[in-house]
Design goal:
By secondary structure, the protein is an alpha/beta fold. Helix content is 48%, strand content 14%.
Length: 404
């Protein structure tokens, strides 16, 4: 009897040890802090509760700038995380090091990704959308009873609201605000004017054509009635220095907190339109690195990503963060529809995405191209050069980059 008992104990110990050894650990490098991290942590805990054989280590790497630099170093060393958030122009830098998700995600999961989010790199699905937002207009209804719907209305109202409140000869409140490090605002306006950075076949730069010049001239005029600064605009908005501004839907919790601190109301409207109502999709995707990962880790990571894309989970993520669902079923889910029915701001964001959402250019040299866009966009905003000169010089630099 004693021998039988010892045998049972031994077998139980071996089984427990085998189970512990079988657990797969995957690392997820992210940039979700403050208002966004708790939702990610909850979803991850829910996933691990349903999948006890998988441990997901969430590793916050700071802001996007810090995350990109750490990923560059990790990829160069051949030791990247299992999963990482990444912008499209990052992805093109290490495309060969990523897993083809088409081989690991169930077909029904891929088919459910919203078409405006679905992106292929050289014919391969190597990323899926995660924390995606859309550009919208934030405004103070006490100063802007009716939000502008066209470029002309936006410019006119921005200049009318740019005032010296205390009579000291200095502007105290600007009609709007613009961030030099964020050329996506310019690209959204460019798309609204049916312009583009490159020709459809990517052989010619088109940003300095007539449509581009009209866009640059509009932005230059708008900059005269804007607070131009590098940081996020939520802080000056909360201080009463800006009446309205274009920002991402993900900025909603931060902008709302700023308005509350400032003691005034905030509302959300679609971006003012031109020929179209295009609005650039912002935010990052998820990718799985192939290098330095086992097959078990890759499969576990794919299972985790599929979990995040489930309709209730992408809807939960959107409700808690200000981002948007990324799947068709997520947008159509009862929980999301009920949510936006009660919240006009999120309904506006959803409608803006459906009407005119478009993504980043997937050119392999877009990393360097965007750096050039940042440089010349700032020249435009700070009136250091005329719009035509800015675009012509930018076009020459971009042409050299695509010719590499």
């Amino acid at each position: 009897m004693r021998k039988k008992f010892l045998l049972i104990v031994l077998l139980s110990t071996l089984l427990v040890g085998a189970t512990a050894m079988a657990q797969v650990t995957i690392t997820f490098w992210h940039a979700m802090g403050k208002a966004h991290a708790p939702a990610l942590e909850k979803l991850t805990q829910d996933f691990m509760a349903k999948n006890p054989g998988i441990k997901v280590e969430l590793i916050y790497q700071g802001g996007y700038g810090a995350l990109s630099q750490k990923l560059i170093a990790a990829v160069a060393a051949g030791e990247p995380p299992t999963i990482a958030q990444q912008y499209e122009n990052w992805t093109t830098q290490w495309l060969d090091g990523l897993v083809d998700l088409g081989r690991y995600l169930p077909p029904e999961v891929i088919a459910d990704i919203h078409p405006r989010h679905l992106q292929l790199f050289e014919g391969r699905l190597v990323t899926v959308p995660f924390n995606k937002s859309i550009l919208v207009l934030y405004y103070r209804p006490d100063l802007v009873p009716v939000p502008p719907t066209t470029w002309e209305e936006f410019l006119s109202l921005a200049c009318a609201l740019t005032v010296d409140l205390d009579g000291d000869g200095k502007i105290d409140r600007w009609g709007t605000g613009l961030r030099p490090p964020n050329p996506e605002i310019f690209l959204a306006f460019l798309a609204q004017n049916e312009g583009s950075i490159l020709s459809d076949d990517w052989t010619q730069v088109t940003i300095n054509d007539t449509k581009g010049l009209e866009t640059a001239e509009f932005v230059a005029k708008l900059a005269k009635c804007a607070l131009v600064q590098g940081g996020y605009l939520s802080d000056p908005f909360g201080l009463g220095q800006i009446a309205m501004f274009v920002d991402t839907s993900a900025g909603y919790p931060y902008n709302l907190d700023a308005a509350k601190r400032g003691g005034f109301p905030m509302a959300v409207a679609p971006v003012p339109c031109r020929k179209t109502c295009a609005s650039m999709i912002q935010g990052t995707n998820l990718a799985i690195f192939a290098m330095n990962q086992t097959e078990e880790q890759i499969q576990a990571a794919a299972k985790y990503i599929a979990f995040l894309l489930e309709p209730e989970n992408t809807a939960y993520w959107a409700k808690e963060t200000g981002y948007l669902p990324v799947t068709i079923s997520g947008f159509e889910s009862a929980s999301w529809q009920a949510f936006i029915a009660e919240r006009p701001e999120q309904r506006v964001m959803t409608e803006q995405f459906m009407v005119g959402g478009f993504g980043q250019l997937l050119h392999p040299n877009y990393w360097d191209m965007r750096e050039a866009l940042i440089t010349y966009y700032e020249l435009l905003l700070r009136e250091e050069k005329a719009p035509k000169a800015v675009l012509d010089e930018l076009a020459a630099e971009l042409q050299a980059l695509i010719s590499k």
